């Protein structure tokens, strides 16, 4: 029930100690403000990490070769292992049921690609049709490579958006001829990539055309796979580890590499990499929660202290109230109302300030691993209600102490 006299008492008590009440409110508001900002920053980190892993299809596994570091079966260390088409085909034959997307790759960097009078130094890759999905790229003009292009060794190319902008200067590139390291290719598509220019300086051509045109024979530089999706992360992680261990063992055996030589066949497993990033993000967010909660606790302690001071200052008044018949519950209620009021006003002020900051400043703070800092409104409101509860708890102990005061002792207080 609304009691106007009770509220008049609260405002009168606050007005008598304006500075002290203001400073206490600031400590509480800053606690909520810092917590919400830190939670928003944690979400920004999570969004940035998730965006990075959107740049490639989820669960991508990349395999490439380097040099041996151990002697094995009469062969000296330092051998450069060269992967070939049959390495790729054997891997698919053995693990095809687990594979969703696949492509072998051959990469050449820093060669001149020209159209008319325009030219530039870019990267070209021989790939298969699945590579578009593996890279999570998007065709914005024309089409990507298909099986017929591979089968017929077609001299066709799909270029990145950056190359289109550099070489074609607004002209439609589809059907035009570009010269890739001295060989003519017809542009059949333009792609864009979530990673931006870093990935859009590539030319994709059929693997068979690349190998035949540039004298690579059956050599490849690597293989990329995406495995079938699993119901949860732990299953996906177990599946990817089993697959990578099996493929590594297969390729080591075929290329005469010591079983314990981990340098010759290298594998990047994005599922494992994702776990490291998400674990790191979890630790950061837990740290943010800890800092924010400690700040709130400091504010709540401030509320408790001011309530203790108020009880001390109003000891004689409390004694008179009890002498006139005031019940312990009414005394406790009086103190709690003031405590909850200060905590609630300060809490919502801090919440509003933090949400406004995230709303207007957050979108301006963007980086590769940090984007769109935000906080779930339900979580924010929950923190405020927890703060109010903590404020009530902070006020309860001084209130309980006030209720226990004997009227005769209170009236003697100076």
Automatic annotation (TrEMBL):
<dbReference type="Pfam" id="PF12704">
    <property type="entry name" value="MacB_PCD"/>
</dbReference>
<protein>
    <submittedName>
        <fullName>ABC transporter ATP-binding protein</fullName>
    </submittedName>
</protein>
<dbReference type="GO" id="GO:0022857">
    <property type="term" value="F:transmembrane transporter activity"/>
</dbReference>
<dbReference type="InterPro" id="IPR003838">
    <property type="entry name" value="ABC3_permease_C"/>
</dbReference>
<keyword id="KW-0067">ATP-binding</keyword>
<feature type="transmembrane region" description="Helical">
    <location>
        <begin position="287"/>
        <end position="311"/>
    </location>
</feature>
<dbReference type="Pfam" id="PF02687">
    <property type="entry name" value="FtsX"/>
</dbReference>
<keyword id="KW-0472">Membrane</keyword>
<keyword id="KW-1003">Cell membrane</keyword>
<feature type="transmembrane region" description="Helical">
    <location>
        <begin position="21"/>
        <end position="42"/>
    </location>
</feature>
<keyword id="KW-0547">Nucleotide-binding</keyword>
<dbReference type="InterPro" id="IPR025857">
    <property type="entry name" value="MacB_PCD"/>
</dbReference>
<dbReference type="GO" id="GO:0005524">
    <property type="term" value="F:ATP binding"/>
</dbReference>
<feature type="transmembrane region" description="Helical">
    <location>
        <begin position="377"/>
        <end position="397"/>
    </location>
</feature>
<feature type="domain" description="MacB-like periplasmic core">
    <location>
        <begin position="21"/>
        <end position="240"/>
    </location>
</feature>
<dbReference type="GO" id="GO:0005886">
    <property type="term" value="C:plasma membrane"/>
</dbReference>
<keyword id="KW-0812">Transmembrane</keyword>
<dbReference type="InterPro" id="IPR050250">
    <property type="entry name" value="Macrolide_Exporter_MacB"/>
</dbReference>
<comment type="similarity">
    <text>Belongs to the ABC-4 integral membrane protein family.</text>
</comment>
<feature type="transmembrane region" description="Helical">
    <location>
        <begin position="331"/>
        <end position="357"/>
    </location>
</feature>
<keyword id="KW-1133">Transmembrane helix</keyword>
<feature type="domain" description="ABC3 transporter permease C-terminal">
    <location>
        <begin position="292"/>
        <end position="407"/>
    </location>
</feature>
